[in-house]
Fold this protein.
Amino acid sequence: MSSTLAQRLADVDARIADAARSAGRDPAELTRIVVTKFHPAQLVVDLAALGVRDVGENRQQEITAERAELADLDGVRWHFIGQVQTKKARAVRAASDAVHSVDRDRLADALHAADPDGNPLDVCVQVNLTDDPGRGGVAPAGTARLAEHIAARCPSLRLRGVMAVAPLGEAPAAAFTRLAASADAVRAVVPDAAWISAGMSGDFADAIAAGATHLRIGTAITGARPAHG
């Protein structure tokens, strides 16, 4: 196992703890998800050996292949954080413990239909914090309505909260403040949907200050991503 992986993990965890304390928060209430995008499955094994319990992927093919390859690896929760095509909802549900990127009724319906009587699947409503309707996520004004649909029509989905990516060209703090308002709208529908999935390698301190509970951190821990097709 690379000692630099352990060093990077420890450094990021120390920075997370510092940011939490600066915001008057308990670092223990934060979940750090290591995003292993494009890395081989062995990286997940190495991370698990270092105590990592939450990993994230954003492509269905990768999370499906890694779950199959690491079927005997216990104690790791798999978070799907990428956009989901409705036709891939069944495969995503089969490979995921949580899906952070539910942004439309049809996707919620497809994830529910994939295993309506199975163990509940944790999901977040993805919020689009940009003015571009082509970006992933529901518009902030539609957040509560989507939450209502999930709560009423998709009983095998357990609505946990919201997720968003800070837009390029805008101060992350302002974007995460808007996300906090969407989180309030979701909690008005499902009071215990307390997750705020926000913050990546470059902006997690701002996300923590705005109330993030789940941080999605990749290259700051994993190092540069391998070339991919």
Q: What stands out?
A: The beta strands are 31-35, 54-57, 77-80, 98-102, 121-126, 157-163, 195-197, 214-217. The chain has a mean pLDDT of 96. The radius of gyration is 17 Å. Residues 137 and 200 are 17 Å apart (CA to CA).
